[in-house]
Design brief:
Oligomer: single chain
CATH class of the largest domain: Alpha Beta
Strand content: 15-25%
Number of domains: 2
Bound molecules: S-adenosylmethionine
CATH architecture of the largest domain: 3-Layer(aba) Sandwich
Distance between the termini: 35 Å
Order of helices and strands: HEHEHHEEHEHHHEHHHE
CATH topology of the largest domain: Rossmann fold
Radius of gyration: 20 Å
Shape: globular
Number of strands: 7
Helix content: 25-40%
């Protein structure tokens, strides 16, 4: 699940991100987006390159790829991850990285056939500015492709323990995460559910031929939780076993929740509920009683620059 971690953290670069895409689904998208004709692609907010590394083999054989991130550390590691993933002649000279801010890219207008991002806009205080920059550097008739989640719903996904919860607890939980999300936005930390807004933003920015897809990957958990994907999904849960606050950073949650209009009393009640839920989940996992279908809403939205 793509929880609303601080974008500066590295929680979202855990192993689970390696299972984000089914290979045959990527091949289908590559076909829909006609990536075989694409000779230049820019990945904005590339992080360690998880997204563009997957798209790279589908591009035209001589295509060049530019990964951009504002953090130097990520682009250095992204370069390494391309080197590790592809034999040198494949990527040599074709893949480059640049440190730049998504809202003020140091790139000429009308440069790339495709400009894309995965979970970048959700971290921007002004996501529309980021989108406009992506469009600016796209060639006329080129495509903009954004992959962004709807994390409020992902946080509320049900599992085998949900039927034990009373309705009031679930309603409170929704209010809690809604206030958390709104507080994040108010503090300029980005909208963790921005996926829902992308089609409208694309239309407002003047893109045409807008198409919207949903990622087809789910992260199911069921006993005995044995395969590598399930282990990767559970890995953070194991790491959180030793933490007093479970998976949650109390100070961060507090900041966002209060900024979203929540009260200090509700914060403490809700935080204990979260801790209890986390402990119940761990107990159920160890007893083989926990299961979840593991769906998460992640939109892929593409549009063409006129
Ligand atoms: C959640 S990570 C996603 C990384 C990568 N796209 C992926 O899917 O694995 C968000 C990335 O956006 C970068 N980022 C956040 N704000 C940015 C900005 N204003 N300009 C450029 N990069 C930014 C972060 O440094 C981070 O690498």
């Amino acid at each position: 699940m793509t929880r609303g971690t601080e974008e500066q953290g590295s929680a979202w670069f855990r192993d689970q991100r390696d299972y984000w895409w089914n290979e045959d689904f990527l091949a289908l998208l590559a076909q829909r987006w006609r990536l075989c004709d694409v000779e230049s692609l820019a990945d904005i907010g590339c992080g360690l390159g998880h997204w563009s590394r997957l798209l790279f083999p589908y591009l035209s054989p001589d295509a060049r790829l530019l990964g951009i991130d504002r953090r130097l550390e990520w682009i250095q590691r992204a370069r390494q991850s391309f080197d590790d993933a592809y034999p040198t002649p494949v990527a040599a000279g074709k893949v480059a990285f640049q440190q730049s801010d998504a809202t003020a890219l140091a790139i000429c207008s009308d440069t790339f056939d495709v400009v894309t991002c995965q979970t970048l806009l959700m971290h921007l205080a002004e996501p529309f500015d980021g989108l406009k920059e992506m469009i600016r550097i796209t060639k006329p008739q080129g495509q903009v492709i954004c992959v962004e989640p709807s994390n409020l719903f992902n946080m509320m996904s049900f599992d085998s323990l949900t039927p034990e919860e009373d309705t009031e607890t679930l309603v409170k939980s929704f209010e809690f995460w809604l206030r958390y999300q709104r507080g994040r936005i108010a503090l300029g930390k980005g909208d963790i559910s921005i996926g829902e807004l992308l089609p409208g933003m694309f239309a407002q920015a003047g893109l045409t031929d807008i198409r919207v897809y949903l990622r087809d990957t789910a992260f199911p958990l069921y006993p005995p939780y044995a395969d590598p994907e399930q282990s990767a999904t559970l890995e953070p849960t194991h790491a959180w076993k030793t933490s007093a606050t479970g998976p949650w950073d109390y100070d961060q949650v507090r900041r966002y929740f209060l900024a979203g209009g929540g009260s200090a009393t509700m914060l403490d009640t809700q935080f204990s509920t979260l801790r209890e839920q986390s402990q119940r989940q761990r107990r159920a996992l160890s007893e083989g009683r926990y299961s979840a279908a593991g769906g998460a809403i992640v939109y892929l939205v593409c549009g063409r620059k006129p």
